[in-house]
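Let's practice the habit of predicting before peeking. Look at the sequence and jot down your guess about where helices and strands might fall. Then scroll down.
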Amino acid sequence: MFKVDAIIDINQVTVDSTVFHLWLLWKVRMSSSRFLFSNGILSNTLDTPPVKLFLEAQPGAYTTSRTHNNASCFLFWERHMKRLSESIRILSTLAPHLLFKSNNSAIAPPSWTTLPIWQPTLQMLVDDSMQKVMPIAIKERVDCQELAVTTLVSGNLEELNACETIDEDRVGKILDVHVHIETYVPPAFGILGNGAHLALAGYGRHVAIAKYSDWVRIRKSLEKLRPPSVTELLLSNDGNHILEGCVTNFFVVCCKGQDSDDKANGNKYPFEVQTAPLSDGVLPGIIRQVVIEWLEDFATCRKYSGSNRMAINPFQNMEGYIMDKEAISG
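Done guessing? Here is the structure:
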């Protein structure tokens, strides 16, 4: 006679395995690692704050790129470096107080200055930091985790005042480079619950054409107004014209009825993709530009300034791109 030590229900095993997988995924999400490399100094992982707290405490221009495909590559790295250098140049001219910092509170930021930023020089400074911190972050990450890499560049007032002239060699002394890396598990795409839930909440950003860390502190007051179910807050200066999200670019995809212009251009079932123009005060985001380039290169589209194209008030200010149904589905 055989002795049965245990009866195994295969359905229960499946459930338990699923629960274990979800628990493991939750464990990985909760155990993210953080690394900070600032001006040649690597901070202890336990001493590295979350990126929001880090940005709140430091002035400067910044950009955040993410890895893809199990941390094997970066998304749009060259574009991020270009946007970072442009943000530094813009802030140094239009809002130096958002870029410069000083260890001496008696030294005020200059009211106006223009830093000649050479993108290759800036990228060399960033690459030098990345080469030192990335191997550590790659070694510490686990499977299914990606890396969020935030590069913050601040202007050093003491070094700026010590320079009679600013040339390519001295830029490295004037700029402080910080690289913050945090591991995370990307949310699954295409799941209804992972979509954005939106609410209109506040005014547009000052010097919106540049990306700067002080916005992280400013938007905290907006975050307090966010309903529990909302995942992103939209900005508007007048309540009628939507600009962008607090941390995202904003597009509207509309299915339009055919009019005479659409028929003349041979567009059947045209779709319209709209986004606020830069002149209204929005960040020239990386994804925003990628989407626009895709529309211009691969879709049968025509661009217009859409003030007279939409009857819905919140979107009256948006630039539009008309495209064929085939372009959307393809």
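How did you do? Confidence is low (pLDDT under 50) at residues 1-15, 306-317, 321-330.
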